[in-house]
Design goal:
This protein is an alpha/beta fold. Helices cover 36% and strands 24% of the residues. It has ten helices and ten strands. The strands form two sheets. It has a six-stranded mixed beta sheet, with helices on both faces. Strands 2-1-4-5 form a four-stranded antiparallel beta sheet, covered by helices on one side. Helix 3 crosses helix 4 and helix 6 runs parallel beside helix 7. The longest helix has 16 residues. The protein starts with a strand and ends in a 9-residue tail after the last helix.
Length: 265
């Protein structure tokens, strides 16, 4: 049971954006996807989630190829996934409530309005979302829109969570709530792939890290191994997160080695 990418590449008019990547993410693992701006993180995440098809190669969910699925099979697989977009991607002509309820009411038409409301209210409490649900997204701050997009991704209790910069624009309270939710999902055995450079996600959630640059896979290994890498470019990218000038939890201090003044120096 896994997400597999076999020779996945993506070409655009401007050139090759992803270069024939081979990856296997085991079910139940939590993976942080890192890379500089423009490296292909968002594109890779969307291809992995089946939102965008690759121009080369194949993506398989539990051994089943997206390329060979019928529309019905693809919809069934998407019921198992939740996606948080970097820009939230809420429907601007719908209320926040309608945005949150849309997928559930579409895929499960027999579910009552009361059941849907109960799920929305429970997740709003979980994420400490206090805004009027009848507002349009345009009236919300960037952080509030991001929280709403996280709640939307959780509505169907997906087996697979794909998140693009989920902590971006969140205040400290929102970030704490996000970490609590990710810890809970991790304990439940959910598979999570998270693009970003959040030190708390790296230290408290991630089992392993994918590092890409210029559309190429530089590394895919456990956090423990990667913080000791000798690859100069990988070290530069990781240094954005593993910066000893920050205050780390005991977990990350154990990983980095409390006796090392600088794990990258």
């Amino acid at each position: 049971m896994a997400i597999e990418m076999k020779g996945v590449g993506f070409d655009a008019a401007t050139g090759t954006l992803l270069h024939d990547l081979d990856l296997r993410i085991e079910t139940g693992s939590s993976v942080l996807l890192m890379g500089p701006s423009g490296s292909g993180k968002t594109l890779l995440l969307k291809i992995m989630a089946g939102i965008i098809p690759p121009t080369r190669g194949d993506v398989l969910f539990d051994g089943n190829s997206f390329a060979h699925m019928s529309d019905r099979e693809i919809n069934r697989e998407r019921l198992r996934t939740g996606f948080v977009f970097q820009d939230a991607a809420l429907w601007q002509n719908l209320s926040v409530y309608a945005n949150l309820s849309l997928a559930t009411s579409h895929h499960f038409p027999k579910k009552s309005a009361a059941e849907i409301r109960e799920t929305i209210e429970r997740l709003c409490r979980r994420m400490d979302y206090r805004e009027d649900l009848q507002q349009r997204p345009a009236l919300l701050s960037a952080g509030e829109r991001k929280v709403a997009s996280i709640i939307r991704a959780l509505m169907l209790d997906p087996e697979y969570l794909f998140m693009d910069e989920p902590s971006g624009a969140l205040d400290s309270r929102g970030s704490e709530r996000l970490i609590d939710v990710l810890k809970e999902k991790k304990s439940m055995g959910k598979t999570m792939v998270i693009a970003g450079h959040d030190e708390k996600i790296a230290s408290l959630i991630a089992d392993s890290i994918i590092v890409i640059d210029d559309g190429q896979l530089l590394a895919f290994d456990t956090v423990q191994n990667l913080v000791r890498t000798e690859d100069k470019r990988v070290r530069e990218i990781l240094a954005d997160v593993f910066d000893l000038s920050s205050t780390y939890d005991t977990d990350i201090l154990d990983i980095l080695g409390s006796g090392d003044a600088d794990p990258f120096g």
